[in-house]
Amino acid sequence: MLYWIWVVVIGLFFGLTAGFITQSEKNSFWIITLISGLLGSALGEAFLGTWGWQVDGLAIFPSIIGAAGFTIIAVVLITLNKKKKFLK
To answer: pLDDT (tens digit, 0 to 9) for every residue of the chain, 88 residues total?
Structure first.
């Protein structure tokens, strides 16, 4: 149970940070960055393994790397979509 709480905390942190950095006013952008942070946190540990510090079964570094990576990808895709209508 605490594992998923930490996944949510790390995912929300990176999702909210991306929202503040890009200063988007759309609610859909916040939702997408939050979801990408959550997915990245969970999948980062699944694909990168369980090395480094662990808190309640959650490997911190792979989770942070995954959350940051997914959030960066989401922000880039949303920005390209706004400027060039990349995804429709």
So the answer is: 777 888 788 777 877 777 677 666 666 677 777 788 788 888 888 888 878 787 777 788 888 888 888 888 877 887 777 777 655 5
Query: Apex CA 88: angle with CA 77 and CA 22, to 5°?
Result: 30
pTM metric for this prediction: 0.71
Distances (CA, A) of 75 to 15, 20, 82: 10, 11, 11
Close Cβ partners of 8 (under 8 Å, ≥ 6 residues apart): 38, 41
